């Protein structure tokens, strides 16, 4: 039990507490490099299950001890503990106990988002973007929002809840947009915005998108590296140079990037070179349950004004 005792001393594992009233929670953020030797996994709580993601194969002795202790501590509270092996070429899942529920949601503030835990790398919800959705909620009232790389449209839900005038969600994945429609149905509002869903590769054509503008706020959250689709290092500039045409009357832009190998300076230099009319305002603060040893390796969300 030496390894587990060390892990407990370092992370406070035995004191992990579930707070359903807080909604979705990260219990352990090893990926933030704050816990040496345990950077290979994360643990989230989506009531009533635990969701554990492994980024490399763990030491068998430690992992056996950890899973046994996790079950002893939480099996009476959580209906299942589900592990995703992200290090496999094709992600796979298994249960430490329980079964994968047919329906599961991430609760964030007053909203719910559909989760899919069945052998997909991304489950339909990025918890670390909660502060960014909160930022958007504070500014979206009466605004025209463009949600680039919208995925399952969580930003769109937050904007509609805050009273946006219109929202355009753009993504190349129709299944993701379909899940986005379901997220909107899960979170009704008294006064609906004009919400559109467009399956489109913006890197191939911007003409259609510009005709649907202008916009007041643009949220740009592309994948860092998606084979055959987007590579932040060479493609982010193609997005940035379009911002003035999308916001001809000025407005706010959020440029987002979750690539540990590209720091904040990469975004700043890209904006300075390809969108010089934009002024840097601030970098949004991350969630406290996502501690990071190196802010450059963490999620980066920068606010600019044109």
Written description of the protein model:
The chain has helices at 2-11, 60-74, 130-137, 154-161, 174-186, 207-211, 232-240, 243-246, 264-274, and strands at 25-29, 41-46, 49-54, 80-85, 92-97, 105-108, 111-114, 144-148, 166-171, 194-199, 217-220, 225-226, 230-231, 252-257, 279-283, 300-305. It is of the alpha/beta class and 306 residues long. Strands 10-9-8-11-14-16-15 form a 7-stranded mixed β-sheet, with helices on both faces. Strands 1-2-3-4-5 form a 5-stranded mixed β-sheet, with no helix packed on it. A two-stranded antiparallel ribbon has the order 6-7.
How are the SSEs ordered, and which strands pair?
Layout lengths: L1 H10 L13 E5 L11 E6 L2 E6 L5 H15 L5 E6 L6 E6 L7 E4 L2 E4 L15 H8 L6 E5 L5 H8 L4 E6 L2 H13 L7 E6 L7 H5 L5 E4 L4 E2 L3 E2 H9 L2 H4 L5 E6 L6 H11 L4 E5 L16 E6 L1
Parallel strand pairs: 3-4, 8-9, 8-11, 9-10, 11-14
Antiparallel strand pairs: 1-2, 2-3, 4-5, 6-7, 12-13, 14-16, 15-16
Summarize the structure.
This protein has helices at about 1-10, 60-75, 130-135, 155-160, 175-185, 205-210, 230-240, 245, 265-275, and strands spanning about 25-30, 40-45, 50-55, 80-85, 90-95, 105-110, 110-115, 145-150, 165-170, 195-200, 215-220, 225, 230, 250-255, 280-285, 300-305. With about 300 residues, the chain is of the alpha/beta class.
